[in-house]
Amino acid sequence: MKKRVKKSKSRDAGFKHPVIDGITFASGTEGDVYVVLKKAGFKPKYEELKVTLVDGFKPTMPFFIKPKKGHVLKLDMRKFVNTTYTPDFTFNYKNYLIIVEVKGVVYEDYAIKRKLFRQYLETGELGKVIFFEVYSVENALQMIEIIKGL
Q: What pLDDT does 104 receive?
């Protein structure tokens, strides 16, 4: 399955935001996966875990960039905020923290965030984790079979 990579930062433009159990989901697929997880007997928490992947900082070295308008280089000393990652669903099963990322449109920053998150998971800070990246209800059903086989 080829992933669509979207460059626009207007991520919510044109997407439906279903509301299920009082939770507003970012996409229909997220809502569908939530329903499938609940029907399977799990208690998924939506966007509850937030991990800082890279700490923000205040630059001290001069850094010149081309502004969006014009051609004259401009000194950019803006503070950088933390780079964070928030997976869509988390829940516990047996002795595992199950983390589920639901993907439909893949934004260009996701590949680097996934890599940094995988590195973070290797620290063991969250304990025993199993991560799933699903793109459809069919993937979610496969995920449930894997989890129940633990």
A: 81
Give the mean pLDDT of 123-148. 97
Mean pLDDT, range 109-133, rounded to an integer: 96
What's the half-sphere exposure (Cβ side, CA atoms, 13 Å) at 2? 3
Task: Quote the pTM value.
Answer: 0.83
Distance CA 65, CA 75 (A): 6
Q: How many CA atoms lie within 13 A of 80 on its CB side?
A: 14
DSSP letter string, 53-121: EE--B---S--EE--SSSSS-EE--PPBPPEEE--SEEEEETTEEEEEEE-SSEETTHHHHHHHHHHHH
Report the alpha-carbon distance of residue 98 to residue 131 in Å, rounded. 6
Amino acid identity, position 2: K
The per-residue pLDDT for 14 is 61
Domain boundaries, the chain: 13-148
CA distances from 22 to 18, 91, 112 (A): 10, 18, 32
